[in-house]
Q: What sequence folds into this?
């Protein structure tokens, strides 16, 4: 479970998201006010399948199924939504008037139970402690707590409670349903049906080993990813900008037919390569995450200002360099948000490379494809190589595009006689 805390005051939202270890202060014009959560951001009590011992009074509140408001809180459940990481995210938001927290320091203990309908005998319990500093009696606005868990398909019942140091209680309960549309039932999600897990905050964790199909020959894949925000004018690269791109990479890394990976992470705005990995058995996500920390979109290099079409020149050189390298792949995959450059990559510079004997793909991540329905600069460039472009706007787009892409790569490989045909 992931918890986040923030405050609203006089209609102006002052927000601070909970990191993995703590909630830090939120500065106000009239002082400093914050809610603190020590140690870890979330705790799963016990392990799945094991008996959990809960304090009798807390268990009684959960079992009672009553809505209690001794603390004046409002709990708003969030409907489970499928993310690009192919995990259903479910959660809630809790609003508490600051006047109800006024006084000396306090401690809010949140406990809730998630019971899958498919396994009612093994509910999971999550707990979190929030330390509240001294709050003035005339404080206005709300304190807001957020929670998030990951679930597989299925029906769930959630019993939720919060207790402060005076033993005052707020409690709520609700049902949640995570379900794929009938047309998407072929999708394989990252969490099995009826399973509940703590939300995954860290995007760049090491990828688990995959059982590879390396016979008769391992396939080598080269991926070029433009790590850039959806909004080209944005000054920062936010987690919501990278999650789909990282998920695309993870889906590529998990294909059992692929045995070797080369990766080039770049940024068009900065006109530089951020990270490079040559022909390894697995993508190094922790190293990639460290490299992306160097992106500074709000800083403009004076040398780049002197180049009228420096971004186009950078993209042209990148394509030429990677396609002429000795690391001959079985497929070349571009990925990233749409980039609309003032000048297109000159086709005459790419035509000498048109004789390549491997397929080229572009996984174009566009949250709002209707805003720019025309091809972007990479989309126009790969036409020279008869490349295939996929538009990724929803999780289902990623799943079905990946399936189609792998099928095309295998078909080309079989056509060359490198792979045995399957019946």
A:
């Amino acid at each position: 479970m992931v918890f986040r805390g923030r405050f609203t005051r006089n209609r102006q939202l002052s927000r601070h998201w909970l990191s993995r270890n703590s909630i830090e202060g939120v500065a106000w014009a009239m002082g400093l006010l914050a809610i603190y959560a020590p140690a870890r951001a979330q705790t799963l009590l016990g392990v799945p399948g094991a008996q959990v011992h809960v304090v009798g009074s807390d268990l009684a509140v959960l079992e009672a199924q009553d809505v209690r408001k001794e603390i004046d809180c409002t709990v708003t459940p969030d409907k489970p939504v499928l993310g690009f990481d192919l995990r259903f995210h479910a959660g809630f938001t809790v609003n508490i008037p600051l006047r109800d927290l006024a006084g000396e320091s306090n401690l809010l203990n949140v406990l809730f139970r998630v019971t899958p309908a498919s396994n009612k005998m093994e509910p999971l319990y999550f707990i979190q402690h929030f330390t509240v500093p001294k709050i003035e009696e005339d404080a206005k606005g709300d304190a807001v707590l957020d929670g998030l868990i990951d679930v597989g398909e299925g029906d769930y019942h959630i019993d939720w409670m919060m207790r402060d140091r005076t033993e005052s209680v707020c409690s709520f309960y609700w049902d949640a349903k995570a379900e794929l549309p009938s047309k998407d039932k072929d999708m394989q999600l990252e969490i099995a049906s009826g399973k509940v897990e703590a939300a995954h905050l860290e995007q760049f964790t090491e990828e688990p080993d995959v059982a590879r199909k390396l016979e008769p020959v391992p396939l080598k894949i080269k991926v070029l990813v433009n790590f850039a925000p959806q909004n080209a004018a944005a000054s920062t690269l936010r987690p919501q900008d990278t999650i789909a791109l990282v998920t695309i990479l993870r889906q590529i890394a998990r294909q059992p037919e692929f045995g070797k990976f080369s990766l080039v992470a770049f940024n068009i705005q900065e006109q530089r390569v951020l990270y490079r990995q040559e022909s390894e058995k697995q993508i190094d996500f922790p190293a990639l995450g460290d490299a992306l920390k160097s992106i500074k979109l709000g800083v403009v290099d004076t040398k780049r200002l002197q180049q009228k079409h420096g971004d186009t020149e950078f993209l042209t050189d990148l394509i030429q360099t990677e396609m002429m390298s000795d690391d001959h792949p079985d497929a070349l995959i571009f990925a990233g948000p749409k980039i609309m450059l003032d000048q297109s990559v000159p086709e005459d510079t790419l035509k000498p490379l048109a004789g390549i004997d491997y397929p080229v793909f572009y996984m174009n991540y566009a949250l709002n494809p209707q805003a720019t329905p025309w091809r972007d600069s990479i989309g126009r460039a790969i036409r020279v190589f008869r490349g295939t472009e996929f538009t990724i706007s929803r999780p289902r787009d990623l799943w079905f595009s990946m399936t189609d892409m792998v099928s095309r790569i295998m078909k080309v490989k079989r056509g060359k006689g490198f792979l045995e045909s399957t019946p």
Notes: The CA atoms of residues 189 and 224 lie 25 Å apart. The helical segments are 56-64, 239-253, 285-292, 302-305, 310-323, 347-350, 377-381, 395-415. The first helix runs from residue 56 to 64.
